[in-house]
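Annex B. Sample input.
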Amino acid sequence: MYEEYSADMGKINDTRMAIIKEYSDECGTLTDDQADNLIRRWLDTDIEQTKLRQRYVAIFEESCPERKQRLLQLDRRISTMIDVQLTSQLPLAQSQIEFSR
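Annex B, continued. Sample output.
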């Protein structure tokens, strides 16, 4: 059951990685519309992750209620590490704002 969950989460993370690659490849030339599209797609993956977790909480509750809390804690930690790894590959957007000292 966890392997199925992990595979489903992996698909979402693959989508996130593709979005990051697209952003990285076009970072300096993105139009506002393209940037908005990437942001919306990224947020959609957040929604997909949340829905997946919600679906599996009930499944884990039925099959292994005594381990559910620990399983979900580990999942969140792993997910946070994956997010850090993925987002660390993002080039920072160049700001057009000049700060005065």
